[in-house]
Please model this.
Amino acid sequence: MEASATTSGGRSALERSSASRLPDQALQFGLTALATLILLLIGYFFVRLIGQSGKAFSTFGASFIFGNDWDISRNIYHGAPLVIGTLVTSAIALLIGVPVAVATALYVTELCPRKARGPLSMLVDLLAAVPSVVYGLWGVFVLAPKLVPVEKWFANTFSFIPFIGGGGSTVTAPNYFIAGLILAIMILPIVSAIAREVLATVPSENKEAALALGATRWEMIRMSVLPYARPGITGGAMLGLGRAIGETIAVVLVIGNAPTIGHHLFNQGYTLAAVIANEFNEAANQPLHASALFAAGLVLFVLTLIVNIIARWFVRRGTRGMRAPEADADNTLSVYTPSTTAGRP
Amino acid sequence: MTGPETTSKEPKRMSSAPEQSEQTEAAPDLSAMGERRQGHGIKVRDLHAYYGSVHAVRGIDIDFPANEVTAIIGPSGCGKSTMVRCINRMHEEIPGARSEGSVSLDDLDVYGSNVDVTAVRRMIGMVFQKPNPFPTMSIFDNVAAGLRLTGMKSDNLRERVHRALRAVGLWGEVKNRLNSPGIGLSGGQQQRLCIARAVAVEPEVILMDEPASALDPIATLKVEELIDELKNRYTIVIVTHNMQQAARVAKSTVFMLDGEVVEHAETTKLFTNPSDERTERYVTGKFG
Amino acid sequence: MSTVSGALIPEISAGRKRRDRVMRGLLMAGTGLALVPLILIIYYLIYKGIGSWSGSFFTTDPNGNFFGNPGGIRSAILGTLEIVALASLISIPIGIAVALYLTEYGNDGVFANLVRYFVDVMTGVPSIVFGLFIYIVLVISHAGGSGFAGWKGALALSLLMLPIVIRSSEVVLLLVPSSLREAALALGAPRWRIIWKVVLPTARSGLVTGALLSVARGMGETAPLLFTVSVAFPVTFNLNGIMNSLPLQIYGDITSPRDVVVARAWGAALTLVALVLILNLIARAISRRSRLT
Model:
């Protein structure tokens, strides 16, 4: 449809005088230039970020990422505690957030009464509207203190499990777990929205195939819905991961901002994004420190870029690729066509 | 490899083309499923079906005799698909849809309060207009899907899957690639795969909702041959747009219009000497 | 003829039925769990924030005093409105223009798909990175004669809002039936007139919805402002200087040891969430109405 609109546009444009074509061409040129400009601008920002990070990378090399020593007083910036903090909190966010988000999406698309669909989706989507500073406020004054007793009990009861072990005495109010939990809540709406979108593309004939075999509702979900939607849901989870990695303000308020590697789920830590927000003021007069923060930003940027690129690939595959090549042709064939369809494979 | 040959040789009495089946393993071979079996008929009484406020089926009484093929014809939107979907309670899966009246499989009330809807669908299988193999499953897993639901495993399962594939005449075409995806097959093969999936669980009745309308003529012919074979073990209800198809496969035919049954008669009578004027106009192509 | 006796009805095992019930229950419980944070956050915002709301809360500026009345949030509200308004003025027209390029000229071309791809990827870039971009390019260099400045914050926000506007606008513009465009083209109308007279008016409510959602998103962002605007207490209409904003006011107040200041953070947070939610609800109402007509 789109293509035919353009060709007919091109043809009628040829028939008109060049004077009346001028505004059209100017508009097309202007819009194309604008799109180009935005791409160039992003590229330029990226190059400048690399430039500003150079000092830190040339001073510390690979140990900027792998070294475990972030010490402002000695002007040494080895960022392993930040990288690990980012990965740990994001992993917790995914472990908690994705199952809940997928359950929500499945319930809304497959189980709940039709009338509840819209309102339920809207309520979950509203979680995305809450600003991150508000999550931080709520996390630091309500969630973190209220969860300390639970965390102590948990750490005591399951002290034999590595990483959770250490007992209740090591529990601090700001910690990896709280940060991960807040992140889980923050990624829930996006993962759920993508999952809903993907689940909506599962063809009803696949679901009917399962039901007609005598499958229960859950068996239908397991047989036809989940396998079909898996790539898309994976992509949604990856997009959530990207969000979790980059989230700053909510995390800086509940992670504890300790530039060490916590040995315990309920220990304080730091993340790449949190360190930038927190130390950026004091770094203004110390070029190496500032450069280290820009480098942390660069690592963050590249990390989220990679995660997002993979995520987009999955989502695209999830919403388009699964169908058989001929399935789309069949859709247009819903009207009776006696025997003209010969020759299709 | 020895399995199919021995089974396809032994019974000669039912296969329409036993010679060919030995050579190509392509013809449907219902004997793979066992002896001819006395099926069970369906009785539909005063059936009404609605989509929201739309009254799609308006009071229908039909008997579908056991071990017979009954065709349902009629113009688009006459409610024939809806009626058939009421028989195995698939109609109620559509949001806002509901039905009234009774459907029984012999003396069993399909809508009875003590009857589990999954059990109903187990007894009354269905084949859809568009071939709908599970896109993420292999050929084998597609046929095994219904059996696995009941917890069937390993050897027994493999045996049943192979039998079902032979029964629909697909065995020779797919025996070497049972683990490749079901959606890799051609449209006609996919539809036979779906029939094999329905047959594998050994239902009493098979409902077919325009099973050949998305297929080319050769694939259509194969499906029609298969339907002819299947009636030896199952009661078959086939909805079709195609009057020639109804004439070829069905013993009796029902003509529906605007949600009601206009005429139900022996197929030859319905097409050559219809008693209702509307039927005559439809079968002679004057409307619809 | 034999009949279907009870024995012939295939047995549906109790285990299957139980698993079905348990899994349905779990999915429902998961949905309930997902709603808990929203309810809790709104409850605590009202419970802790409504007490701060008073006439003077909205009409006085924060004063930074260590004792006594800490002041209200007037400058924060005005600052947020100024910055977000400027960011909207930049990102919404540009965003719709790029979306028009994609749907009306780019179509399925290589360059258009490249733009689409980068817009997609941009939606995933953390907001703090946009803040860093502007900080490096404009704040360090003292562009415009000042370091931190409201307009730089607006630029950072518009970078963040741009992909949201482009994405939502493109979706809406694609919904405009091509038959409308073709009908106008057949009459010999030039393309720019079709865009102006047919495409944009048809898509108007959808475009407004997308724009409002992007404004709501920009309004709540803290990190980009942190690197570009800094904080000043008094009301200012000079966008070329530091100014106050709701997110930064809340962020600053959270770390205060004084209870009254923390209470102001809750009150400000309630204000911010109310603004964002109202924008969201208006956007949804508009999109719902347009779908009905």
